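tmp note - Diacylglycerol kinase family lipid kinase
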Amino acid sequence: MQLELHLIINRHAASGNAAKSADLVLSALDNKQISYKDYSTDYPGHAIDITRELLKTTLTPWPDKKANSRFPLLVILGGDGTLHEVVNALDQHFHIPIAYIPCGSGNDFARGVSLSRDPLMALEHLLEITEPQPYHVLHYLENIQEEEGYATNNIGIGIDAAIVARSNVSASKQTFNKFKLGSLSYLYTAIQVLTKQKGFPLMVEVNGKSVGFDNAFLCTTTNHPYFGGGIAIVPEADVKSKAIDLVVVERIHLLKLFRLIGQLLKRKHMSSPYVHHFKSQNIRIVSTTSQFGQADGEELDSRPFDIQFTTVERLFWL
Ligand SMILES: Nc1ncnc2c1ncn2[C@@H]1O[C@H](COP(=O)(O)OP(=O)(O)OP(=O)(O)O)[C@@H](O)[C@H]1O
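out:
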């Protein structure tokens, strides 16, 4: 099957470093005499508008019914946030495959699906593939604001979301990204926010059973092991599995918390008595107090949450 590539490029990802990666990819395509159309994003959310336009005019589900035609393949160049926008813009068009060349700072989805984070290697991989594969993505339904969407990586309320909110306004992300140290930016901001985040009451419902926490600190639902730029929050999570992994960490004394962070970095935190792991195809979390929220590193407003999670299969050209 011949391909017609449609590239959505977020040159602003990785604090602008994505522009260089995108130019490398476009030059490689020119050298190989592979034709493409490229669309650069001009503002936050522009990837959504471009995707919706392509959906009306160009994109088709796999497999293509028209023989001898070139398949219009959507290719995303950006970070997890850009991918998040496109997955949500495609909504229930699960049979329209998404190809991905990671150019962001964290690139957790690429880590989660074992895709090379070197843009040229990811391009080689894309050009070798002959058909898309199904992967799971998280589906969430927030009952209070009746908001629905998808996440390729994770959705969290509590400290991880507070870190996202803080790092989006801090200069450290730009500084660390300049030196290609996106995950250090996350850790640096994390340490700044840790002292401020208070514990909050949380209810978790898994397979019809409710569990209450008086003093939750982190509550993250994840599709694969990674968050925050390569931190393995649930090392055993598997993007190919239908099950969702939820991890709840309790607010503990700062000294114990630093010890837990050490264990987290060595992937030994899951046995801690303060870390609670749930795995199911259907999970609900309820926070009656206002908390920060994040979906794939994109901020959700600070508010109470009542979220129902499932997974859906969608095609990726990976
Ligand atoms: N032209 C633009 N100017 C400013 N922001 C943009 C522009 N185009 C897209 N964006 C925004 O950039 C944000 C961040 O992009 P993205 O998450 O892909 O990169 P990143 O944060 O560097 O990577 P990662 O999420 O993998 O750490 C997205 O929220 C997107 O809406």
